[in-house]
Structure of Organic anion transporter:
Amino acid sequence: MMGFLMRKDVRKLLKRKDSDAGEKGRALEEVRASLFSKLREFGGGKRQQTTLWGPTVALTFNFFVSVSIILMNKLVLVTVGFNYPIFLSFLHYVCSWLIMAILNALSILSLSTPSKSTKYSSLLSLGIVMSLSTGLANVSLKYNSVGFYQMAKIAVTPAIVLAEFVLFRKKISFLKVLALTVVSVGVAVATVTDLQFHFFGACIAVAWIVPSAVNKILWSNLQQQENWTALALMWKTTPITLFFLVMLMPYLDPPGVLSFKWDFYNSTIIGASAVLGFLLQWSGALALGYALLSTSFGN
């Protein structure tokens, strides 16, 4: 009998029988850990993956969110009549901060900062230009048509290239210049039929180009050199951005935000715009992170 029980195939059978009860629990735990791991990777800044699907998904996600939030914000500012673009930006960042806090509390996404210390002046500068970039963008969208807004947005890319050349002597290849030109011309042709603008709105659009370009440069430098993840950087700079948005409200928003008709429909539309604001910021950071990663591998 002992010889039979000690046989290899019988030992395997007995071991399988004893472990059947816990296999389902372990399998469920492994699936849960895998899902959380994937979400944490998706929220990260640098990834050690060179596959094409990651950048493609990030860029596609950012494209659809960008188009959606432009249309949604135009609906909020014009159709709904919420004439407070800076306060709308403030609501966007408050919503983003709350979403990140919930995700962090549930351990779904990690907001841990890098081990390497970063100067507070760098985070302060980024928070300031983020408030200017987002706030002025919504002011421009309030006064100008979507087509003119898109035309101003096109100018941000060459402004980034010029600023990086002036500040860091960074040059890009002829093929990248050609690709940027083709994309810019394509968007310009697509929006040239809708170029209505207000003089004050046009001035705001021109003023918006500079902080928007600086925002992307500072963000990319912190991700590339300091190893910040997208969400961690958003979490750290959001309080600074909120403070400076409050400072901008008296100058660029009209009075009377508390007397606005906060009914169910208006509140739902504004809330949807705020959620899209979080998705836009996150998707843009992810797309920028993948672009930095592909650049580092290309070098």
